[in-house]
């Protein structure tokens, strides 16, 4: 498969990977035979390293939604004749996809100075990890101190903490800083707030950082009674702050993906507060940014239907359903973050392999 992938048979190899019920054999064979395959042609070693690492990357993405990790609760340990029991923390096992990512990462990290193509590979690896929706792979146990029921693990020595490997190699890559915030967004929100605010003025990722900060404020804006230790002490008192945040986002970007989400989230915030005219205007703005995107189209149509403008609501839905190739909906992919860049990233890596 490595020979075929190196020869440019990318689609056929990926299709074959997608038919495998498990990636255990792929991981095992890469660990065993990958170094020998790479060393077989010393003059082509760098390209072969990229081939092997990118093949592992594609395999990881093919299996990310099938198998990723297992967190197993351990039985209670009770002493005989003593009514006391000890509950060990959970045990974590990584399945092949994250281990394949780390195999490729370790392979490329052997070079003291990263090659330019490694940045593209690491961005693609981040996209795969975020598609798997597993913050733990990126930053470590997100349930530290929260106990067994919350999923806290005891075998922290087996953590991967992928971003700790990547950040020092690419200290100027702001998408890795943004990824730190996204990984902590739902677990340690004070940390996420700090990461997002640090990027506020960045020309590349500042708009998305502010968008995600606003979305977090919208989620938690009604609760300011959190304790200082639950990761939510810096959140605002009202969703009004989120609306102001979304208004500011559009001045920072021309990216339709970000603009759509800022308008869509703003519509939801207005609707939650009963400000239906403003919600309608925001939803219409989102539909204008990406016509026929499901989330905004349905939200706008529902609002129109409830206000007895049912003909327009029906037309919007009918037009959306009539699309042969409906657009990718940013709201549906929001949780997967950089996975939206996967097509461009993998094309860049494949092009480098064929050079």
Can you tag this structure with a few keywords?
355 residues, 18 helices, two-stranded antiparallel sheet, single chain, mainly alpha, two-stranded antiparallel ribbon
Let me know the number of strands.
4
What is the number of helices? 18
Shape: globular
Please identify the structural class as seen in this structure: mainly alpha
- Measured as a percent range, the helix fraction is 55-70%
Structure explained in plain terms:
The chain is mainly α and 355 residues long. It has a domain of 165 residues. The chain contains 18 helices and four strands. It has a two-stranded antiparallel sheet with strand order 1-4. A two-stranded antiparallel sheet has the order 2-3. β2 and β3 form a beta hairpin. It starts with a helix and ends with a helix.
């Amino acid at each position: 498969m490595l020979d075929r992938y190196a020869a440019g048979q990318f689609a056929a190899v990926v299709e074959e990977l997608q038919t495998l019920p498990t990636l255990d054999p792929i991981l095992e064979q890469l660990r065993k035979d990958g170094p020998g395959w790479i060393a077989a042609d010393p003059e082509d070693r760098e390209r072969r390293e990229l081939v092997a690492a990118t093949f592992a990357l594609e395999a990881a993405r093919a299996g990310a939604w099938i198998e990723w990790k297992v967190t197993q609760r351990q039985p209670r340990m009770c002493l005989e004749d003593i009514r006391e029991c000890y509950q060990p923390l959970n045990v974590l096992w990584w399945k092949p996809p994250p281990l394949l990512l780390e195999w490729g990462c370790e392979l490329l990290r052997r070079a003291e100075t990263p090659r330019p193509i490694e940045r593209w590979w690491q961005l693609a690896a981040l996209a795969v990890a975020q598609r798997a929706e597993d913050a733990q792979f990126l930053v470590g146990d997100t349930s530290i101190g929260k106990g067994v029921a919350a999923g806290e693990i005891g075998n922290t020595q087996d953590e991967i903490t992928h971003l700790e490997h990547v950040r020092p190699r690419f200290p100027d890559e702001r998408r890795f800083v943004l990824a730190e915030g996204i990984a902590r967004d739902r677990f340690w929100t004070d940390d996420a707030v700090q990461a997002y605010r640090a990027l506020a003025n960045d020309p590349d990722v500042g708009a998305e950082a502010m968008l995600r900060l606003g979305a977090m404020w919208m989620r938690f804006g009604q609760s300011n009674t959190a304790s200082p230790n639950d990761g939510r002490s810096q959140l605002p008192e009202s969703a009004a702050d989120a609306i102001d945040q979304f208004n500011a986002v559009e001045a920072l970007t021309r990216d339709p993906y970000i603009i759509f989400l800022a308008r869509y989230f703003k519509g939801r915030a207005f609707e939650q507060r009963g400000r239906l005219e403003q919600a309608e205007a925001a939803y219409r703005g989102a539909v204008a940014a990406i016509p026929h995107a499901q989330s905004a189209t349905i939200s706008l149509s529902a609002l129109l239907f409830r206000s007895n403008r049912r003909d327009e609501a029906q037309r919007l839905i009918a037009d959306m359903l009539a699309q042969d190739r409906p657009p990718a909906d940013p709201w549906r992919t929001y949780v997967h973050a950089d996975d939206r860049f996967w097509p461009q990233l993998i094309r860049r890596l494949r092009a480098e392999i064929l050079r």
